[in-house]
Amino acid sequence: MRPTRLQASRQNRRSAFFFRRGKLPLFLTLLFCSMTLQAQEHPFYISFYYAPPPAGLSNAAPVYQGLAVSTDLGESWMNRGWITSAVNAIAVDPANSAHVLLGSDYGVLESGNAGEDWKLISGWDMPAVLDIEMDATGIWAATTEGIFLSKDGGASWNTSNAGLSTPDGTYVTQLLRVPGSMLIATNDGVYRSADKGASWRRSGLESQPLSGLQAHPKDPTHLLAWSEQDGIWVSTDGGRSWTNRNEGLRFPSVKCAVFDPRDRSTLLIGTRITGVMRSSDLGKTWEFASGGLTNLNINALLFDPRQPDRVYAGAENGSFISDSRGKTWQPFSIRLGYVSDLWMQ
Question: Is the dihedral of CA 313, 316, 319, 322 positive or negative?
Fold first, then answer.
């Protein structure tokens, strides 16, 4: 089963990148938990930039970046991150949930045992990786300097930027696999490749500095694109045309978005200022859906593939859970700071 995944936490990765560069240390060697991962039946991964010390350990140092792993649907957590590098995105092998890739400020990291061990499979000179994907073509890395593609499991990498405009078009914030194509969100709109990255063509929203893309999990002709500066757009024809849906948004600062998997017309967006907004008519109208949130700067949203009424939200400071399809929220079990991505099998 193809994993459900919200890339993007898919905040405006550009601003997050500079935030981390300016405020957080690059190297920290503390793990606050050394539990051994026993089962990989239902892994749940969260990448983050900061976590406070565990409750009751006030003298312990915080963890500044990494990957948190749960195998019991969030009842307990382990820190499995590559803690010397800020993690921006998670990719998991559809055939083996213990095979994990992380896109980080210092390249691509790989683990074959759900994060117990890590190795860098790109060079240290690779630009900051903002998103990461793996498919039958290879490993795709979206970076601040374009697309890098490895067809040999990370042993070698080549750029894949033919057709992208420069310089803005090479700032790639997100990868989105759809049937027959790969779509990317860039600082210069949407691009599409139908030839496994050999070339790229525009697919709308030219000149828009986009933060992310998302497809409906059951109908990939329904797409969302968003920007932290200019709001959200909807496409119902696979990206051939786009319609802006900012009317009713007081602050169109969109950092993430997700479709309700049971309804092509219902969607949630996470914003920088107003928390979560919800629409049941494909963005024509919006309602506030931030009840219970204690932080309104939302980076990531994820519907639970097992419990379709349940949604998770990662914020600038904390994580939250909703059992009402995103209408109301309460704090989630794990204590984290800036959540950058969520993935659940």
Answer: negative
Strands lying side by side in the sheet with 330-331:
298-303, 311-315, 318-322, 330-331
Answer yes or no: are the C-beta atoms of 34 and 5 closer than 8 Å. Answer: no
Residue 199 dihedral angles phi and psi, to the nearest 5° = -150, 160
Q: Name the nearest CA neighbour of 250 among 313, 209, 296.
A: 296
Beta bridge partners of 79: 68
pTM over 0.90: no
User: What length does the chain have?
Assistant: 345
Contact of 186 with 202, CB cutoff 8 Å: no
| Whether the Cβ atoms of residue 15 and residue 49 lie closer than 8 Å to each other | no
CA angle 7, 174, 199 (to 5 degrees): 140
Is 22 a residue whose pLDDT tops 50?
A: no
Burial of 205 (0-12, 13-18, 19+ CB in 10 A): buried
Predicted confidence at residue 107, as pLDDT, reads 92
Question: Which DSSP category does 63 fall into?
Answer: B
For strands 129-134 and 330-331, give the pairing. unpaired
Cα 131-136-142 angle, rounded to 5 deg: 15
CA distances from 140 to 73, 121, 134, 272 (A): 28, 12, 6, 28
